[in-house]
Structures are given as C-alpha cells and as structure tokens.
Amino acid sequence: xxxxxxxxxxxxxxxxxxxxxxxxxxxxxxxxxxxxxxxxxxxxxxxxxxxxxxxxxxxxxxxxxxxxxxxxxxxxxxxxxxxxxxxxxxxxxxxxxxxxxxxxxxxxxxxxxxxxxxxxxxxxxxxxxxxxxxxxxxxxxxxxxxxxxxxxxxxxxxxxxxxxxxxxxxxxxxxxxxxxxxxxxxxxxxxxxxxxxxxxxxxxxxxxxxxxxxxxxxxxxxxxxxxxxxxxxxxxxxxxxxxxxxxxxxxxxxxxxxxxxxxxxxxxxxxxxxxxxxxxxxxxxxxxxxxxxxxxxxxxxxxxxxxxxxxxxxxxxxxxxxxxxxxxxxxxxxxxxxxxxxxxxxxxxxxxxxxxxxxxxxxxxxxxxxxxxxxxxxxxxxxxxxxxxxxxxxxxxxxxxxxxxxxxxxxxxxxxxxxxxxxxxxxxxxxxxxxxxxxxxxxxxxxxxxxxxxxxxxxxxxxxxxxxxxxxxxxxxxxxxxxxxxxxxxx
Amino acid sequence: xxxxxxxxxxxxxxxxxxxxxxxxxxxxxxxxxxxxxxxxxxxxxxxxxxxxxxxxxxxxxxxxxxxxxxxxxxxxxxxxxxxxxxxxxxxxxxx
Lengths: 491, 95
Known about the structure:
The complex is a heterodimer of chains A (491) and B (95).
Chain A: H1 5-8, H2 13-21, H3 27-45, E1 48-51, H4 53-68, E2 79-83, H5 110-117, E3 121-126, H6 160-167, E4 173-178, H7 184-190, E5 193-196, E6 216-221, H8 224-234, E7 264-268, H9 278-293, E8 297-301, H10 309-324, H11 343-354, H12 357-370, H13 376-396, E9 402-406, H14 422-426, H15 433-438, E10 442-450, E11 453-461, H16 466-478
Parallel strand pairs in A: 2-3, 7-8, 7-9
Antiparallel strand pairs in A: 1-3, 4-6, 5-6, 5-10, 9-11, 10-11
Helix pairs in contact in A: 3-4, 8-16, 10-12, 10-13
Chain B: H1 5-14, H2 21-38, H3 73-77, E1 83-84, E2 87-88
Antiparallel strand pairs in B: 1-2
C-alpha cells in the first residue's frame, strides 16, 4: 500500500490520531516525516530554537510499542512543539533570551509532563519574544520568526514560533503562553487557532514567569477540535501552582457536537472604532453573520473602559515582570558576567548583558511604577482600573454567552515596521489584553483574508466557559473553510 | 520628557541593570513615552474602587509543610557558572 507521506503534515491531530490508531502509519514514520520537514523548511521561518530529533524518535518508538499492546494515552504518538518558555528536563530552555542561552532545565513543567504522559512526541522548542515580552517576535535573542504567509511579515508574538510552525504544517499543535495576547494575536496573524484558557485553568508550574497574575498557558492548532483535544490534557488542578484552580475539566471534545442555536453572541460597540482596519472589520462582521446563520443571536454590548486596558496592562505587567525577573542574578543559573569586581557589579553586568532592550525597558518601567512615591499613582491606580475593566466584562456576560470581535487591529505587519515604537507595538494587543486583566478565556480562529494575509475572529467567554468557545469555533469551522487554507510555500 | 537622565539612572540602579551611554539616552526617550502613555490612567474615576488582587477573587491556598521534592543538588548546579563543594560562588562580600 502506498503511504501518502506528503500529506501527513497537512492533517489535523484528530485525523493523525485516527491514522495511528487504525495502523495506517506508525508514530516513528510520522515523526521522521515532520522532522524532515522541519529540517527542510525551518531555515525560512526560524520558528524553532531547538530541535529534539533524537528524543522525539526514541519517544515515538516507545509510543508505537505501547500502541501495539493496545494501550497509550489520548495523544499517544502525536507530534507537538513546546514554546521555549516551558521547562523541559535535560533540554535547553532559553525563553528567547541570551540570559538563558546556556540553561538546561533540571525539571519538566506540569504542561510538559502532562502532554508527555498522554503520549505526545516533542519535536522541539519554539522561538518567541524574549521572556514573552513582545508582539512581533522581534525581541528574541535568536532573531525574528517569519510569517509563513509572507516571509517579510511578522507572525506576531510572543508565541510567534509556535504559531508559524503550526501554520507552516511543521506540527499539528504547539503550546503557547498568553499574558496580553501572546497566543491569540500570533494565531490571528498566521491563520491558526489559539486559545488562552481561564486564569488558573492550566498550571503555570515550570512556565517561566513574566507577569504572574496575567500569565496563562494554552495551545495553537489548526482546528478547534485539536485545540479541545490538547487543552483537555493540559488543563486541571496542580498543587505545585498556588494559583491553579481546583475545578473539574469537562470533556471538551465531547462537547463540540452540540449546535450553537440560541447562543447569545455579544458584539462590542467600541471594537469597531477608528483603531480597527476597515477591511478587517468587514471580515469580522461577515464571520459574526455566519454565527447568526447557525442560530446564534447577536446582542450589542459595551466595554466602556476598553481604551484603558492597554495603559493598565503596561503598569501591571511590567511591575510583575520587574519582580519575577529579579531571580536572574548570574549566580545560580543563566548568564554570568566575567571578572566581576564585586557582587553588585556581578548583578548589574550579568543582567545588563543578559537581557535585551525590550526586557530592560519593561523591568525599568516596572521598577519605576513600584518605586517609593509612585506606587499609588501607578500600580494601585492600575489595579483599580483593572477592577473597572473586569466589571465591564461581568456586566456584559450577564446578557451574552460569548463576545465576538477582532483579535488584532490589522493583519500581519512588516518585520521592522513597529519595532522602534513601543507604544505602537503595545496597541496591537488592545482587543486581547482585557481577557488577561479579567482572567477570562479567549480564543482566536481564522475568519478570512485581507491582502492575502489571515484575519482572526476573537471569542471571549465567561470564567471557565472554554467549552462554549470550542463549540462556537467548531460550529464555525464546520461551515467555513478558512482554517484549511495553507500558505503557498508550505503546502 | 517626563523622566530625566538622573531618574533613569536611579531606576536602573534599583533594577540592578548596567546600561551603556547609548542605552541611557534611548531609555530616557522611550521610558518617558511609556510613562506619558500610562499617565492616561490618572483620568479614570476610581473613587471607591477596590484594587483588584486576583482575577478570580480567589485566596492563596495553603499546603501542608511536608517534604515533597527530591533533592538533586549536583544536577541543579550544572547550570551555575561557579560552584564549589555544593556552594554557589560569588565575589567576596565581606572584606
């Protein structure tokens, strides 16, 4: 029987699982094929920092043996990629930084452990903005990732490597993290599916911290069904994360079959203000009309403090980052400056040399807003405004089940276009940041093209309403074909 | 410019970051822009609003004070630049 190897990469995780379980091919064959693809294509993209070929093939061999006995986890033999922010025992975990270029993690993150226990095969670690601070992947010590849809464009960030890898069919799924939009914005810019679950839904243990009250792990895939499959494994209580929430994990895949008849979809008046590209706005309205045609009801809602979400974020996130990144001192791990004169010199030079410009900027912003005399005016004020923003969502979710709108203000922008203007870059996250500030689940799904570049539809739900997001996205994908579009050079 | 070079030097010191002269010039400009940008928060009416401590209003969980981790000191210390007899080495602190 001839094996359509050339098509494996184009298949969803769900289809690959059926192929493996039905004996059409083995995990070793599949893993080989994707590793070959990475070797052939990633020079164009720079999506991966580390390829773990030997470990992947060994794990694939084990998974094939387990399958032969009729056992194996729900992801047995399926290849994935981890964002290089997740600690992986015995493997370099750089977080996109020179600071951790020499760091071999001595332990696995809970997300890594859970996916491996379910049988997933890790092909490698993906490129990202340094310490997840960026919206274009240009702050990475390892160079920018290119967008598979146009190699002169950014794939977004900070999970840009994961998004580009999934869009280019290097793997069917990749993990990501999202502090202000870092899963959803790159998913939108690369035409992939990205979900950031409710704060506390997925363990943060072993996920290198940026802003602890906002950080949440999630996943990037090409279909809502695959995202449901992955999150079902990743989610759940973990006593090693003090903010993990002890709530049962629903059967996300099982819940996909239901229709969205009667689903109340909120459309935010403020989303269609001047900041949104007019062509993108049209695509968003068309996709909301598709949801209506499937039986959903649209209701107009207000998020009056939307404009304040970006300045709130750029006080809270840098404040938490300045505290979290104080652990990098050149002593126990990470970059250490040579020939330090004294301890202070060791700290200052190790950090000055190890961190890039954007990370230093955020550490200093955070240090400033927390410093004596400024705490009340900035940090306390921002936490109050954060409450107002969360209340706006609470009010909206009294009337609707899902809020639908744009993920990003425009399609992918050119590499270099915004890199010199931090404020312009920060405003890219205006539609996504609110979900982080309020701890809500958010998801981006592909909903069309503008100038041959993908556009993302953003769905936000109430706390722990991931099921609703998956159902809404899956129904949409059953009636549209945007998620099957593939960038020309990566077919 | 809302921040002076002196202020930025003070912030860099508090943050334990050594910056070059060029980096100082750029930081004064860009940090000033960021501070001006976040200053719009001062326009918001927050009288009587409680600062948000947790996205889900959850309290910090406590756990029993029990040993749960395996100690692999030598393996952990492979990541350190300078160790001796299981100790991390730093420049002399007390003369």
